[in-house]
Amino acid sequence: MISSFPGIFFGLWGIPAVFLFTYNYGKSQPHDLTWEESGKYQFIQGSKFAYGLQKNQTKALYWMKRAAKQNHPQACRFIGRSFLYGLGMPINLERAREWLLKGARLDDGKSLEYLSILHQKKDDLLSACAYLSLAVIKNSDRNLVRKVKSMKERLTLVEKDALSSKVSSLRKEISIVSIFATNSIVLPKEREYCRITLADGSKYHGQIKGGKPNGYGKKTLRSGEVYLGNFKTGNENGFGISFDHKGRVSFQGLWIMGNPALMSHRSESN
Fold first, then answer.
1. Which H/E stretch holds residue 112?
2. DSSP assignment, residue 16?
């Protein structure tokens, strides 16, 4: 299995390695709901749409949000950065700060760098310099060190005197950020994960409502075909992936009440 991902480079016979990864993934990975629901898997899916050959910001955000809700640090940074620059969503500096603080709390040094950029946008140079100083503590990269030095030169004398205490207060603020506070996943009992057999004999494992698939889940047909994604009142609805009986991706995209709505991945049945 080719796992050098994301990235655009060419492997054997000039075939893009990202495509090979997607193809081999469909064949070799088990359709285990525990794995598919993991933040790591969701981050990989989001990275594919953010940086791979099939760029799609909407789908990247869909998967990154799922990963971020499960405390994946780089996914938190991705969502924060998207709010910061208005990538696929309106600019919202407060929401950006919320997600970037969560990323920083989860030990992602790059989130600190983006928090510095955010505060520069707010004309708060002292906080910007303090966040960047924290980033340097995590990673003494030469470029970061130069940036901090340049930023310190722009501070007033009063701000320079206050910098050390500001760094300490921000470090404390990050340490008490609740990693469950940002859109934490709390499902009511009727949406808990269950295993049920549907009327057509298909097996379902996922969220239910009113005795029907509703939310995120996995449906396995008697033929061996599998659908993994969102459901609404018993039907495939929202973003989902279908696999043929050999485990190959047959469709990936949007579904409307049981039917594919937008093709986003060519069939690999040949």
1. helix 109-121
2. B
> Whole-model pTM?
0.59
The architecture CATH gives domain 189-263? Single Sheet (2.20)
pLDDT, tens digit, for every residue of 139-187?
Answer: 888 999 999 999 999 999 989 999 999 999 999 999 988 776 444 433 3
Residue 86's SS3 state is: coil
Q: pLDDT tens digits, residue range 12-68?
A: 333 334 333 333 333 334 445 566 678 888 899 899 888 888 788 888 888 999 899
Read off the amino acid at residue 71: N
Tokens standing for 52? 């791979």
List Cα–Cα distances, 81 to 78, 110, 156, 189, 211, in angstroms: 5, 10, 28, 33, 39
* CATH number of 12-175, picked from 1.25.40.10, 2.30.42.10, 3.40.5.10, 3.40.50.300: 1.25.40.10
Residue type, 33: L
Reading the block at residue 256, the tokens are 């409307």
- All structural domains of the chain with their residue ranges: 12-175, 189-263
